């Protein structure tokens, strides 16, 4: 079996593959894939405008002044602009009350120019995230974090209106090289509400056999090494080392970690949860950081916003 043809490595091919140690991974270029998706979305938006329909609208809600959140929200607006989605940014101070945030969400729910509402997470401490996310109209829940959308994702035979963006982006990347996940062993490192758990749910829906790992997992390295598909979303710089990865595996690196680097203009560089330079020699496919899952997350947000606009067509 060749790791280039999208087939799944089985344990009896493992030792043979190890000898091919120096066969470098193919890079799964999320930035390029996201660019293609954005072009397609731009075309569809233009088509809608030509039909006399209004531009899809996305409202972002940023509470407080977390610098990383400000960067992410800014790049979401930029991406909207690129494809013709109208984006509206709402900012509240870190001192905003629960009521103020809830009132804003309700106002956006009632605003017909707003098709999608994204409340940037994490919210400052003191605010009830569950209540805020639950207040978003499910037809505008382009992040897919409303309890009804997550509940449907977790249940057989139910369809969420929207799938969370980062997990959806991971699946597009994985399925671009491994379209048939039937019976594949998938390991997800991390169980957060926004990445680990929903990506695990999507992998189960795609018929993979899924193991979810977290800070209490024993024998992490061995569990990871059993994976045909490994998704790392822990937020620990370069935690996944070369001997954690089965030769030929598809490795999706969700982590975005800043590490100090005086040679960089910003004083830091971004690294993933995977030690890219060593894992690239053994994985079949590997996503880079930056340029992997991050841009796909934003492309999925645009896709969800366009879908929300379509849902609101009368
Ligand atoms: N590219 C993108 O689009 C996105 C990237 N990210 C990045 O992905 C990473 C994860 O984000 P997020 O899910 O929000 O993070 P969280 O901090 O919410 O979750 C981290 C998860 O990893 C587990 N974990 C932490 N340390 C270890 C360890 N040493 N061994 C095993 N498991 C561990 C935690 O376990 P436990 O539950 O037991 O605490 C938890 O389940 C971050 O770097 C974040 O910046 C996030 C969102 C989008
Ligand atoms: N309600 C909500 N929805 C989210 O989708 C959400 C969130 N809250 N909170 C935080 C995380 C994080 N996240 C990222 C999106 C894009 C990049 C991204 O584009 N990264 C670039 C690099 C960006 C840089 O240079 O910093 C890349 O990986 O190439 C990263 C991370 C979305 N999140």
TrEMBL record:
Pfam families tied to this protein: THF_DHG_CYH, THF_DHG_CYH_C
Spell out the residue ranges making up region: Disordered.
1-22
Q: Give TM regions.
A: none
The EC number on file is: 1.5.1.5, 3.5.4.9
What metabolic or biological pathway is this protein involved in? Answer: One-carbon metabolism; tetrahydrofolate interconversion
Enzymatic reactions: (6R)-5,10-methenyltetrahydrofolate + H2O = (6R)-10-formyltetrahydrofolate + H(+); (6R)-5,10-methylene-5,6,7,8-tetrahydrofolate + NADP(+) = (6R)-5,10-methenyltetrahydrofolate + NADPH
Asked if the record carries the keyword Amino-acid biosynthesis, the reply is yes
State where composition is biased (Polar residues): 1-15
Keyword list, A-Z = Amino-acid biosynthesis, Histidine biosynthesis, Hydrolase, Methionine biosynthesis, Multifunctional enzyme, NADP, One-carbon metabolism, Oxidoreductase, Purine biosynthesis
**Signal peptide location:** none
Protein's UniProt keywords contain Iron: no
Q: Name one GO biological process term.
A: L-histidine biosynthetic process
GO molecular function ontology, one term from the record: methylenetetrahydrofolate dehydrogenase (NADP+) activity
The UniProt entry's sequence similarity note says:
Belongs to the tetrahydrofolate dehydrogenase/cyclohydrolase family.
Q: Which PANTHER family match?
A: C-1-TETRAHYDROFOLATE SYNTHASE, CYTOPLASMIC (PTHR48099:SF5), C-1-TETRAHYDROFOLATE SYNTHASE, CYTOPLASMIC-RELATED (PTHR48099)
Q: What does this protein do?
A: Catalyzes the oxidation of 5,10-methylenetetrahydrofolate to 5,10-methenyltetrahydrofolate and then the hydrolysis of 5,10-methenyltetrahydrofolate to 10-formyltetrahydrofolate.
According to the record's subunit comment, the protein's assembly and interactions are: Homodimer.
This protein's name = Bifunctional protein FolD
Say which species the protein is native to: Anaerolinea thermophila (strain DSM 14523 / JCM 11388 / NBRC 100420 / UNI-1)
**The encoding gene:** folD
């Amino acid at each position: 079996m060749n790791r280039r043809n999208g087939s799944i490595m089985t344990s009896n091919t493992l030792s043979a593959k190890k000898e091919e140690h120096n066969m470098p991974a193919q890079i799964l270029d999320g930035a390029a894939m996201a660019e293609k998706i954005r072009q397609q979305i731009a075309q569809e938006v233009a088509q809608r405008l030509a039909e006399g329909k209004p531009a899809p609208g996305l409202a972002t809600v940023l509470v407080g002044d977390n610098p990383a959140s400000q960067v992410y929200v800014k790049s979401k607006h930029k991406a909207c602009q690129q494809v013709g989605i109208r984006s509206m940014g709402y900012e509240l101070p870190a001192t905003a009350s629960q009521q103020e945030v809830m009132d804003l969400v309700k106002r956006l729910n009632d605003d017909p120019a707003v098709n999608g509402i994204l409340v940037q997470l994490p919210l400052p401490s003191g605010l009830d995230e569950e209540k805020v996310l639950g207040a978003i109209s499910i037809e505008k829940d382009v992040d897919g974090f409303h309890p009804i959308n997550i509940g449907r994702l977790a249940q057989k035979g139910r369809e969420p209106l929207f799938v969370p963006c980062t997990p959806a982006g991971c699946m597009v990347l994985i399925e671009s090289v491994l379209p048939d996940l039937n019976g594949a062993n998938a390991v997800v490192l991390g169980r957060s509400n926004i990445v680990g758990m929903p990506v695990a749910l999507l992998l189960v829906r795609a018929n993979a056999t899924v193991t979810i790992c977290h800070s209490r997992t024993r024998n992490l390295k061995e569990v990871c090494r059993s994976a045909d598909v490994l998704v790392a979303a822990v937020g620990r710089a370069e935690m996944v080392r070369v001997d954690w990865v089965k030769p030929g595996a598809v490795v999706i690196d969700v982590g975005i970690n800043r590490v100090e680097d005086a040679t960089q203009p910003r004083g830091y560089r971004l690294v993933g949860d995977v030690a890219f330079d060593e894992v690239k020699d053994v994985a079949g496919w590997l996503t880079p950081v930056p340029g992997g899952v991050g841009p796909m997350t934003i492309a999925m947000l645009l896709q969800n916003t366009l879908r929300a606009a379509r849902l609101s067509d009368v």
